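Troubleshooting log. The previous run stalled partway through. Resubmitting the same two chains, unchanged.
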Amino acid sequence: AQSVTQLGSHVSVSEGALVLLRCNYSSSVPPYLFWYVQYPNQGLQLLLKYTSAATLVKGINGFEAEFKKSETSFHLTKPSAHMSDAAEYFCAVKETGANNLFFGTGTRLTVIP
Amino acid sequence: EPEVTQTPSHQVTQMGQEVILRCVPISNHLYFYWYRQILGQKVEFLVSFYNNEISEKSEIFDDQFSVERPDGSNFTLKIRSTKLEDSAMYFCASRDDRGRNEKLFFGSGTQLSVL
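Second attempt completed without errors. Output:
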């Protein structure tokens, strides 16, 4: 069975501070992993994805995530938060050969000026 | 970048009524999906559709739900007799079938409120 767990439903950081959003996965086979972002009143937008190539994945808007098999983690980071980063972030997993994504519960990021 | 379009953005209905949520996937995509997100909960998979038939569905997708691709562009989700617990944001998504492109493109969602 495949699933993801996102620790922390709400994360607040100061503008310019490091952003760290946590995601741990469980999967019986090598997974594909994704981070999606949802800005207010918008749909889900892909930030980045891991598909068994490089373990450090760079995405849009300065975000990156590192796949760590030993920790079954795929945490999302950004060195310096910007006000425009305030949104809901979802980690998702898809097993190789499967057809759909399984999402975590989401983490709401607030950026404090 | 191409977009998945969903209409309406908000739908209010009475319990027991039928609703149809509409989606226009990206034109050259072959896989279509419906997901929903109940307020405060995770985004949940409902159904996937490929080659004019359901390829996979979750336990949520019971007999009250159906999907259809009535023409070459639209992909609809019908709820026959809505219940209060069907209130959620419903997202349509699509992806193409080329290579190992795993990226799903999502629409902006339809907020369904059942009263």
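Takeaways: The mean pLDDT of chain A is 90. The two ends of chain A are 41 Å apart (CA to CA).
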